Amino acid sequence: MRLTIRHFPLHRIAAAVLALSGGAMGTAQAQTESGAPAAGPIQDAGVVTVSARRRPENLQDVPVSVTAFGGDQLSKQGTPDITALALSIPNTTLKASRATNSTLTAFIRGVGQQDPLAGFEAGVGIYLDDIYLARPQAAVTDIYDVERIEVLRGPQGTLYGRNTIGGAVKYVTRKLGSKTDIRARLTLGDYSQREAVLTASTPISDAVRVGGSIARFKRDGYGRNLVTGAHNYDKDMTAARLSAEFTPTPELFIRLAGDATDDDSSPRNGHRVTVGRTSGAQILSNVYDTRANLTRALGHEQEVKAHGWSALLEYAVSPQLSVKSVTAARRDKSYAPIDFDSLDMTDFHVPALYKNKQFSQEFQLTYTGDKVQGVAGVYYIDANAYNIFDTVLAGAVPSSTYTLGDIDTKAWAVFADANYKVNEALSFSLGGRYTVDQREASVLRQIYLGLNGSPAMGNPNAVMFRTDTDFTHGELEREDKKFTPKVGLAYKASANQNIYASWARGFKGGGFDPRMNVVGTKISNATARAGFLPETIDSLELGLKSSYNNNRILTNIALFDSKYKDVQIPGSVEVDTNGDGRPDSFAGVTTNAGKAKIRGIELEASAKLTNALSVTGMYSHINADFTQYLTSQLVGGVPALVNMANERYFQNTPKNSANLRATYDMALPMMGRGGTFSVSGSASYKDETSQFEYASVLDQPAYTLYDLSLTWTSADNKIRAGLHGKNLGDKRYRTGGYVFPNLGKEGVLTAFYGAPRTVSATLEYRF
């Protein structure tokens, strides 16, 4: 494997990381009962235990690329939501999708999914307590009531209910304690940030415990809508979680849980980076300000509601053998007014409605013996993703294009993964999964005259011009079947060094693009009915996990080499639907045009330099290159497939990423309670990032973010006060955008940005 690094000398970074650092790989520092930092080896002080292989294991013993964050660690660093974790995870991008507040875009090692529309499966699986979230809406989760978060890199399928081709993010909530526990957290910050979280649990009897959390997150916008006066990039969210746990016998554990979120934030509108083509509207000086005038969809203000319930049963048949059942259902609904042009006019508007629902059932059998450990299971999911939206476009002929996508997915799988210990040093693992994905889709695309929308979106008097696509009679069906194996080998070269190698195949089923335009893009009905094909990835990984100096220094190194085939590449293109030579609409074009090679290295480490000073760091490098990217072009007047691989890029995959954090803990009595004062500062680097598969002015150049946290924790761990500064350099960095320069009268080149400098104060009290 040959790695080329443009900006960084690898040997220097590797030396620095190995000597000092360690990215957030789960070394959450424990505390003694007095609140002072625990002395002695890091491992003895509490390395995070993870369940990456469906059983509790020390992170350093797991032959898997996994990064873990403990709840206490997240609290001390003032981590606001799940997207902030990406700064310290190798080769990982987690962000709010463009024009949304709570829809998640996730990429790991070059694999992910940017478009949240129905019909597209996630490349990175998001799990809430072992429950796979089929859709990305409402998946930008605020950090509360959490025990830990685990991020696994590489294909997952032999251990998890739903196969995911790129990786998995697991959000693990706390189990209820044996004593009454009440906790409160208050946060105040600039931009009028005010947040409150209340968590409580209590035992009702020896066999029954109940608990719940309610959270309120509110903040003014980083900018303003200069037309309506509303905030832009604000937050207005309420969340709640309830659970009841039963242990009728020592062998049986039952957990019933429910959760709900309601996001009433204002529409997140983008920043135009070009002057209006016909109006001459100038570029605004504040990138968080907007002139967007679309505020409603189907008569509703922007809103995202999501809720779900689950039932978990665990039964220990014997000390070695246990069975588990996970039953869950979820629903969400989003009203999304998207103003592409971001101007005080109706030029390019997309009011949309998203509705999703899912039901899943998983059965697991886990065995933990002296020689053999493993898990086997069956999984079933029945999910529906439904979206409707209008594409309202000004131009020579003003029009409103109505699009409906209604996608049903039924998938089932059997999976198993077993580990055999040859001796105390050598073990090997073997796993496999057989997956069946069935999809049925309805797609309808109709053009109406004028800018007032379609009948389905609230204009009963609309006049239809024509139907471009109509597959609403059961024509769109496909079934994809795949066996995906995994093999691994682990060798404990010494008590402090764990070497491993693994090979795994990942798989993601095919589907149908709900934005397909048969007339405008001139595709045949047969091609449309076929949809796009599944994609696969073969990933080889070599890793070394080590500890030095009586476990005061921990290092993780991983090399990976992946071959990505039939890469699903969804995109939106400008189309000319009336043949006048000018684009007058846009449509979805999803192809399997790609083959790619993805190679990289990941370094994570942590060093406890003294009992008070610890340093962690992460560095990752990735070469993700298309080797084939076929597009249809006219060659000599004849349509032909042309390989454009040299002009195509992996989106949301910066070549180099790094993070360095230093934390100093000191005993500092306050208010007569004793305790520990901690200073924690970090710098996070991201290389140049492509927003799309092609070069664009919206691509984000390399940037660095600086954070600082000051916290005091009382000796009895009942009180924690913190002051947290994020993006202290006040860096403006783009996280996404839209590029349709020829559509509408004004053209669209709109960018969305990450948060500016923010400062907040938190107070946590445990009764």
From TrEMBL:
Topology term for the membrane: Multi-pass membrane protein
Entry annotated with the keyword Iron: yes
Compartments (UniProt record): Cell outer membrane
Primary location class: membrane
Residue ranges of domain TonB-dependent receptor-like beta-barrel in the record: 259-728
InterPro entries with a match to the protein in the record: Beta-barrel_TonB, Beta-barrel_TonB_sf, Plug_dom, TonB-dep_rcpt-like, TonB_rcpt_CS
Protein name from the UniProt record: TonB-dependent receptor
